[in-house]
Amino acid sequence: MIFIHSIIHAKHLQFFTLSTMLSLLCFLLSLLFLLLLPCLRPCFSAKGSLKDKKKIDKGTYVVGEEEPPKGLRRELMPRHVAVIMDGNRRWAKQAGLLTSQGYEAGAKRLIEFAELCFKLGINTVSAFAFSTENWGRHKIEVKCLMYLFQRYLKSKIQFFQSKEIRVSVIGNLAKIPESLLGIITEIEDATKSYKKKHLILAIDYSGRFDILRACKSIVKKSEQGLIREEDVDETLFERELQTKCTEFPSPDLLIRTSGEQRISNFFLWQLAYTELFFSPVLWPDFDKDKLLDALASYQHRERRFGCRV
Amino acid sequence: MAELPGQIRRMSGGISQLIEQIYGFSRRCLFRVISMGPIPSHLAFIMDGNRRYAKKHGLEDGSGHKAGFSALMSMLQYCYELGIKYVTIYAFSIDNFRRQPEEVQSLMDLMLEKIKSLLEKESIVHQYGIRVYFIGNLALLNDQVRAAAEKVMKATAKNSRVVLLICIAYNSTNEIVQAVKKSCINTSDNMEAYGNDKHEDRDSDIEGTDMENQEKRIQLVDIEENMQMSVAPNPDILIRSSGETRLSNFLLWQTGNTQLCSPASLWPEIGLRHLLWAVLNFQRNNSYLEKRKKQL
């Protein structure tokens, strides 16, 4: 009625136009929804999970066995897996626990994750424990995290020694407490001789600062006459990054949990050809099955490095 | 009676034009609704899947890339209509030079043809007032392509409405190394000038301080300024088609906080719905990102 009324009266022309627009928009939005419907499912599901993925037989994998589970091939295992352990705080909130308990669960999950990776034949595991940007969080939360790192690392020195896992910590480390720095030095010294398994913890790390440090180191070396400017290329540059501590500085696979799809200033240079796997699962829930899914996805990918089709 | 087929053709041509106009109008209305929320200022595309598209449809080699170019023109149109100011595309990587020589040559020929077409009056460049940049190690390109690229950059230098960055003969690691080299050269030039000034004043030994100062003076901002991509802000969204989820040495420095999307469609099949989905996701995550930016 208002519609017809407004047609008759010229002074309501503006209202007529507005209501027509609104009806048209509602129609368009529903049309849009229909168009987007085919895309909704693939967008919601974990990025990187296959439509026709092989079924992972949960029952056949036994902890302590060296053979990879069915569906995975040992020769296609990544040599270096990186992980952004996102979702601890949300996990704690969902479970009705304190944030610190969320972080504890996350730390525990990391140890299990690393152990599993090493059992599957993966040489290096790197984990984004604390970003330079995380200093902006609440002071108490940051203090709690630092204390957690200290306590956990101290309690695990014997564990790493018994499993022969080399532990390295990379990052700026300028602002971390002295006591944590001391534990880091202790654990690095205690495990530096191990070669087959390497756990890298990125604490107070930023991909951009890593590149900047490499740049400064190159400048210093060129001033000292150790390198010539014309020798500076990508290979030389890579050797100056903090990941020089490992034989495989570039991760083959990066896993980020909790559904966020960004790198968040973790490895930047090193991720040039890394396969990215985004999982909607929160980090403390990222168990053995989820890891096997990620590895299965990785093994089915075709890595072309810009060349063949 | 002989005029009937002609009349039918004209009518169907008229109808399809009308449908196109209605579609365009609906699209612009939709964009108006979406722009009620935050719109990304910079979108980057990795145009993956052209060769697989040609294989899938049994087309000859090279046709996939041509189809990809049409898809690119449509996407650019949608982006600029939506109000996105900067669009970056990964046209050709330094790694792609390692492909078969015939394929590389045909790609170079196609790029030369398309770069030249950007200068035509009816091209999208004139329609939207696009400023075009070619980012990459242009010395690796053949003379013709390089000359055409430089001509386009010069011809569009005065445009300022929207920007198109075409990454050609590009690798992010190469870009970073070049930027680092440039920062070192700039800094050592500054230090020489500084050192010369100081020597005029007094004889004191300042070499030790020099090295310290030189290290201190190379800051993040120095490297950033010398990046070829510094003409645009960091991308808000990076869309890679064909379902592959990797960066392939594209904008590594710049995509630290970029939202990554990887629709399964091959690049020539990419459409409006993929762009809309990426933008809607961006809007959903935006308030979190703005909070984080304030924390930094």
TrEMBL record, chain A:
Keyword Endoplasmic reticulum: no
Cellular-component GO terms for this entry: chloroplast stroma
Pfam families: Prenyltransf (PF01255)
E.C. code: 2.5.1.-
Transferase is among the record's keywords: yes
PROSITE patterns linked: UPP_SYNTHASE
GO biological process: plastid membrane organization; polyprenol biosynthetic process; response to cold
Obligatory cofactor(s): Mg(2+)
Group of enzyme by EC: transferase
GO molecular function, one term: ditrans,polycis-polyprenyl diphosphate synthase [(2E,6E)-farnesyl diphosphate specific] activity
Key words, A-Z: Transferase
Pathway: Protein modification; protein glycosylation
Family (UniProt): Belongs to the UPP synthase family.
Function: Catalyzes cis-prenyl chain elongation to produce the polyprenyl backbone of dolichol, a glycosyl carrier-lipid required for the biosynthesis of several classes of glycoprotein.
NCBIfam families documented for this protein: uppS (TIGR00055)
Protein known as: Alkyl transferase
Species the sequence originates in: Arabidopsis suecica (Swedish thale-cress)
TrEMBL record, chain B:
EC number(s) on file: 2.5.1.-
PANTHER family: DEHYDRODOLICHYL DIPHOSPHATE SYNTHASE COMPLEX SUBUNIT DHDDS (PTHR10291:SF43), DEHYDRODOLICHYL DIPHOSPHATE SYNTHASE FAMILY MEMBER (PTHR10291)
Associated pathway: Protein modification; protein glycosylation
Stated role: Catalyzes cis-prenyl chain elongation to produce the polyprenyl backbone of dolichol, a glycosyl carrier-lipid required for the biosynthesis of several classes of glycoprotein.
Family recorded in the similarity comment: Belongs to the UPP synthase family.
One MF annotation (Gene Ontology) recorded for this entry: ditrans,polycis-polyprenyl diphosphate synthase [(2E,6E)-farnesyl diphosphate specific] activity
Entry GO CC: endoplasmic reticulum
Protein name as it appears in the record: Alkyl transferase
One BP term from GO: polyprenol biosynthetic process
Organism listed in the record: Arabidopsis suecica (Swedish thale-cress)
Keyword Transport listed: no
Keywords from the named record: Transferase
